[in-house]
Amino acid sequence: MSSKHFQANPLSCGVGAAGRLILPVALAGLAIVxxxxxxxxxxxxxxxxxxxxxxxxxAVQVGPTLYLSGQIGNIPGSLKLPPxxxxxxxxxxxENIRTSLEAHGYTFADVVKCTAMLADMNEWxxxxxxxxxxxxAGKFPARSAFGSSGLAFNARxxxxxxxxx
Length: 165
Hints:
This protein is of the alpha+beta class. Helix content is about 20%, strand content about 30%. It has three helices and nine strands. It has a six-stranded mixed sheet with strand order 4-5-6-9-7-8, with helices on one face. Strand 7 (about 110-120), helix 3 (about 125-130) and strand 8 (about 140-145) form a beta-alpha-beta unit. Helix 2 (about 85-105) packs parallel to helix 3 (about 125-130). It is globular and about 45 Å long.
């Protein structure tokens, strides 16, 4: 964007390279461009993993970025967890994430950040053994993991993700 554009309309939204929305902002005489600054949030619920009656969105998309709510290992269409503990739950969590990503046009290759919450940090290695099979080697998203004193429906693990294109 040219300096002429900033002078004429310093807060107008426009479309930049790759069709991304941009918002020019003047800060102490400097021009800063915020990606997705103009995009309105889209609250998404595919109904493919969780009932759409729950008090949160499955995902929220803002521009090219998709924010997934935390997923537990519930069997799709129900709030029941698979029997067997952390390993089958971790696999179902990741399958639920895949389902949500694909329902909204994304894949695991688009995931840039995950947060994992574990009911027992002693199960961290078992969770990782499952988790890492869903990403290409050397292309893991940034991640935080922490222990929790309780997760919804007594789940062993919950994972939330951010995906971007």
